[in-house]
Amino acid sequence: MEHYLPSVPGNVHWGLWDGTLKPVLTIKSGDRVVIETLSAEPEDMPDASLGFSIIPGHKEVHQHTFRGPGPHFLTGPIFVEGAEPGHVLEVRLLDVKYRADWGWNLQVPFLGTLPEDFPELRRIHIPLDLARNVARMPWGQELALDPFFGNFGVAPPPSWGRLSSKEPRSFGGNMDNKELGVGSTTYFPVLVPGALFSAGDGHALQGDGEVCLTAIEAALTGTFEFHLRKDLKLRNPRAERPDVWITMGFDEDLDDAVKHALRDMIALIGEQSGLGAQDAYTLCSLCANLRVTQMVDGNKGIHCMLAKSALPVRR
Q: Is residue 238 assigned to a domain?
């Protein structure tokens, strides 16, 4: 069955993940949901003189939604029938569409990867040529768009309290992983009954690192398909595309984020091929690629990528 979840007041939570939020939609395993998302807090909206289109209902969400500690608008939560802690929610991203003809990029004093070099506030609004799938940058360059959702996942346990939408954690959240675009499948450990999935933080284009603080932030509509997996056990999110496996680590210390992602890849190799941990460690050294996901969200991110073709055949 396919459902539609619009980004209207009551369907959007602002700046927070919270395991006590009430679901706005209930679905079954195997269902698809078309999810509208928003991007831009009131101060990030373009001036009317720029001539950009404004999504109907965007300002109403600003006016009628509680503002949490983080900056992201997240549509949801979605309750998946039968999902219980200890299960895994498989989330397939089938399609992405743009909702507006603009995106935005932000630099903020004391934030970003080089705060000592760039102490001034800068906010730019970037035209998106949707017919040609390019962004037109202020210095005249055109860049091909490559959209994905930066912030999506399941709810944390209620005992964790209300959390900012900024930091990625074991439930997913603000992972900002550009590899998780259309055609990717992401797996989340279920931590509360119903999983309580939400999505937002659309990105039109981002490099690994997201170094200045943001990507080209943009409002997107995504088509997601959900499958409840009782045959899997996970402690952290992992993902795959048709040709590659992806594990992820999040920590304030980049070295520790590397360790989390690498340990999970070693475990994944064992699960998929039966290879022992020491051999899998060697295989990672030869064939896996560690990449910096983002440097700017409190908990830094690393993703480890291994081509499926590099996995040995299970004996």
A: no
Across the strands, what pairs with 13?
74
Decide: residue 104, CB within 10 A, 0-12 exposed, 13-18 middle, 19+ buried: buried
Give the domain extent around 222: 2-229
In angstroms, rounded to a whole number, what is the distance separating the alpha carbons of residues 215 and 297? 12
Q: Are residues 72 and 105 in the same domain?
A: yes
Q: What is the pTM (predicted TM-score) of this model?
A: 0.97
Domain count, the chain: 2
Question: For residue 80, how many other CB atoms are within 10 A of its CB?
Answer: 28
Question: Measured between alpha carbons, how far is residue 126 from residues 54, 132, 265 in Å?
Answer: 14, 14, 37
Question: For the chain, which residues score pLDDT lower than 70?
Answer: 315
Supply the CATH number for residue 306's domain: 3.10.28.20
Please report the pLDDT score of residue 314 as a whole number.
80
Q: How far apart are CA 227 and CA 233, in angstroms?
A: 14
Report the distance separating Cα 34 and Cα 199, nearest Å: 11
Structure tokens at 247: 């594990």
Q: Are residues 16 and 55 in the same domain?
A: yes
At residue 313, the pLDDT reads 87
CB 188 within 8 A of CB 196: no
pLDDT for the residue 31: 99
Same domain membership, residue 136 and residue 281: no
